[in-house]
Amino acid sequence: MFQSGLRFREVSPAMKPGPMEQPASGHHRIACGEPCDVTLASDRRQGMIWNVSVVGAYCVLSTPLPAVGETARLTFTLPGDPAPITCQVRVRWQNAPSIFKGCGQTKMALPPGCGFEFTVLAASDAARIAERVHATVISAR
């Protein structure tokens, strides 16, 4: 049998919260992978929170994507925390579908969706998000 000499290393689940490539803003993000509800005017849609930071979240949504600047109500949970977070958000950017299935056009490493900025968020929910992000970043070091 062929042996490469390399040791087998167990791979952690893809959606396990962990630190990610950080944006220029310096706000740490963690993987989330939790379902969410997005309410735009009278239209309620389901999506998935791909990652979250203290200032916003990336949401995987089917088309049509909400317009940049549009406001919405977002409800989601953090991994392992069943208490829902409901907040008001604004669409900061869109990542429309590309010609490559499952990849966004603007940021191909992400599935199609949009970046939300938290505009109205309860202080207790902001603290929960900050605590989770901080704990995940510290544990990864």
Describe it.
The chain has 141 residues and is mostly beta strands. It has a single domain (29-140), classed as Beta Barrel (Thrombin, subunit H). 13% of the residues lie in helices and 42% in strands. The protein has one helix and six strands; from the N terminus they run E-E-E-E-E-E-H. It has one helix spanning 123-140; strands at residues 29-40, 43-53, 56-60, 71-78, 81-95, 113-120. A six-stranded antiparallel β-barrel has the order 1-2-3-6-5-4. The longest helix is centred in the C-terminal third of the chain and has 18 residues, at 123-140. The chain is globular and about 35 Å long. 28% of the residues are buried. The model is unreliable at 1-19 (pLDDT under 50).
CATH secondary-structure class: Mainly Beta
- From the N-terminal CA to the C-terminal CA, the straight-line distance is 37 Å
**Can you tell me the CATH superfamily?**
predicted glycosyltransferase like domains
Care to count the β-strands? 6
In which order are the strands of the major sheet placed? 1-2-3-6-5-4
Instruction: List the helices and strands in order.
Output: EEEEEEH
Whole-number mean pLDDT: 85
Q: What would the principal axes of the Cα set say about the shape?
A: globular
Helix content: 10-25%
Largest sheet: 6 strands, antiparallel, barrel
What is the CATH architecture assignment?
A: Beta Barrel
The low-confidence parts are: 1-19
Strand content: 35-45%
* Backbone CA Rg: 17 Å
Task: Supply the number of structural domains.
Answer: 1
- Helix-and-strand structural type: mainly beta
Q: With helices defined by DSSP (H or I, 4 residues minimum), what is the helix count?
A: 1
Q: Might you state the CATH topology name? A: Thrombin, subunit H
